[in-house]
Each structure stands twice: as structure tokens, then as C-alpha cells.
Amino acid sequence: xxxxxxxxxxxxxxxxxxxxxxxxxxxxxxxxxxxxxxxxxxxxxxxxxxxxxxxxxxxxxxxxxxxxxxxxxxxxxxxxxxxxxxxxxxxxxxxxxxxxxxxxxxxxxxxxxxxxxxxxxxxxxxxxxxxxxxxxxxxxxxxxxxxxxxxxxxxxxxxxxxxxxxxxxxxxxxxxxxxxxxx
Length: 183
Known about the structure:
Layout (H helix, E strand, L loop, with lengths): L1 E8 L5 H14 L3 E5 L2 H7 L10 H37 L8 E6 L11 H11 L3 H5 L4 E5 L2 H4 L16 H15 L1
Parallel strand pairs: 1-3, 1-4, 2-3
Helix pairs in contact: 3-4
């Protein structure tokens, strides 16, 4: 059984801490976990930023393409891992549990919508040849963690993410846009 879960939320919402908890908890339950890191962080650390691209839409398209490619790779790897686990289970002829593979995505496809106008998002879908519905249905669950900028501003900061540049007001507004994008 393969399950795909998105952890999303505004800046400084506890996603990194949550991912660590998920890993510890679910591995104890016998799950095999795969983690896909957030594409925006990966791209920005590599020097691909919105300011360097020709437009916001161009940057978001690069990010969305990377996300889709990585999700496809992780899903193929999960199927391969699950097949190996099934074969081992059959070879042992034991009453072992059905293999469980859990893919955790640090942000999902719809997160990009929070950074785009409706027109840009529609254009991105057209260029990518995908629909909003098929991308959303690609996930089994989505968990939104609220930014600390909303109700615990004293804990808001950039210590856990060097590329975080939003002030608390911008972080709270972005958190609202992320919720709206997934709603």
C-alpha cells in the first residue's frame, strides 16, 4: 500500500519539525518512508530565484515542472520498493503485514498557486498539460500547518530556513493564500 501525503502551510509553520515527527512515528509502525523536499528551497539554494527569471510565471513553471518530475520519480521508486517488500514477504511465506510505503511531500502542487494570479495559474496548467483536479487527486491527504506569524509571532523567524524572507505580516498573508489555494 502506497500513500502520498502533503505537508503544507505558511512560513515558519513547523513543517520541518512535523516531518521529523512523522518519520520517527511512522517508522516505528513499520512504514517505509520517502521524503520529497520542497522544490522552492532546492531551487533557491541552487540560485534559481524569481528575481533571476524573466517573470514570476517562468519561475513558477520551472518549480512546478520540478515538483511533478520529482513526484513521478518518488512514486515509481515507491512502487519498486513495495514490489521488493512483497517479494520478500512471499519468499518468507510468513504472516507479515502488507508492506506500507508512505511518501511525504514537503509542499504540493497547489502551493504554487499561492504565489500566482488566477490567470498565471491557468496558463501554467495549460502549459504543463495538467488539470487542477488531477494534481490534487494525486495526493491521499494534505495537512496544513498554520504559520507562527498568526498566533505565536514570538516564535516566528528564519532560523530553520535561511531563504525565508517574509516578515510576520507577509507570512500570515501567504499562509492565507496557501489555504485558499488548497481549498
